[in-house]
Structure formats: C-alpha cells, structure tokens
Amino acid sequence: MTSIDRLDAELLTALSEDPRAGTSELAARLGVARNTVQARYQRLVESGVLTGFSARVDLERLGLPVTAFLHLQLTQGTLGEVTGALGRLSRVLEVCTTTGTSDVMVRVACRSHAELQSLIQEVLTIRGVVRSTTEIALTTPVEYRLGPLLATLTSDRGRGRSGDQRR
C-alpha cells in the first residue's frame, strides 16, 4: 500500500476532475511549485497509484441512453472463461467479481431496451453463466468521484515538506 498525504490527494482529485490540466495549471491550483507537481505526479505513477487517464463520455449523447447492471451467477470454475467472453462484447463497459447472490456484475450500455434484452440473451449463451438478474439505471445523481474519499483518507495528514497546512 502506498501512503499519500493531502497534497497527493489534492493532485489526484484535480487530475480526476480535469485530466487535461497541465503541470503549471495544477501547480497554480494547488499553490505549489511546478517541480513539486511533477515529482508528486511521477511518484504516484511509479507507485501504481495513478494508472492512467480517461475521458468522461456522455453515453446518452452518443445514442446509448440505457445503462444497466447484469448480475450473473456462474458455474464454479468458469470465472475466467466467462469474464473473457464478456470482455469481447462491445456493449460491456465494466465487469466486477462480487460477493453475495451473484458472482459477477456487468455494467452495459445500450441504444434501447430491446437491444438490452438482446444483449442479455447473448450473455446467457456464454458457457458458465447460470442465471442473470438485471437492474436498469434510471439516473446517476452522484457521478463517479474521488475527491471526498481522498480527502477523508488524508484528513489527518499534512501537505508534505512545504509545511503548508491550508485547506
């Protein structure tokens, strides 16, 4: 586990909110030197905490207004085969292994309920899938975010060598 301080958390939050922000902009926003941002960034990458950047895409504007979560029960010993097959389906956005009544949760995006139904039927043909339950997302009132979690995680830590204890 890599330990981060409040400055690291603020840098990660800023990058998650605006992945295109440059070093100078981040330095100004965080109130530190460019070299500090560059060093912190490099350390976060090398430690594996920061694994990449991605664009946020409005799926509805792309003609994919139906987001759903498929909860799948699997035959024991077929997890790798099933997740491999799911990874080859273009409408699958994410696959998570889970505990509870399902073994896998699959986030999908579709153009219509009919397309979702077709996708579910396709998923049910994958060897090892025993049963599925589907939940359709109506809205996303809280988007994926990191800031509050990182702030809580580092609330008892300083901001590094600068001694700056602001915020």
UniProtKB/TrEMBL annotation:
Transcription as a keyword of this entry, yes or no, is yes
User: Keyword annotations for this protein?
Assistant: DNA-binding, Transcription, Transcription regulation
Could you tell me which InterPro entries the record lists for this protein? AsnC-type_HTH_dom (IPR000485), Dimeric_a/b-barrel (IPR011008), Tscrpt_reg_AsnC-like (IPR019888), Tscrpt_reg_AsnC/Lrp_C (IPR019887), WH-like_DNA-bd_sf (IPR036388), WH_DNA-bd_sf (IPR036390)
Q: What SUPFAM superfamilies does its record include?
A: Dimeric alpha+beta barrel, Winged helix' DNA-binding domain
The source's domain of life comes to Bacteria
- List each copy of the HTH asnC-type domain by range: 4-65
Q: Which Pfam families match?
A: AsnC_trans_reg, HTH_AsnC-type
| PANTHER family linked | LEUCINE-RESPONSIVE REGULATORY PROTEIN (PTHR30154), TRANSCRIPTIONAL REGULATOR AZLB (PTHR30154:SF34)
Any idea what this protein is called? Answer: Lrp/AsnC family transcriptional regulator
Q: Which organism is it from?
A: Streptosporangium amethystogenes subsp. fukuiense
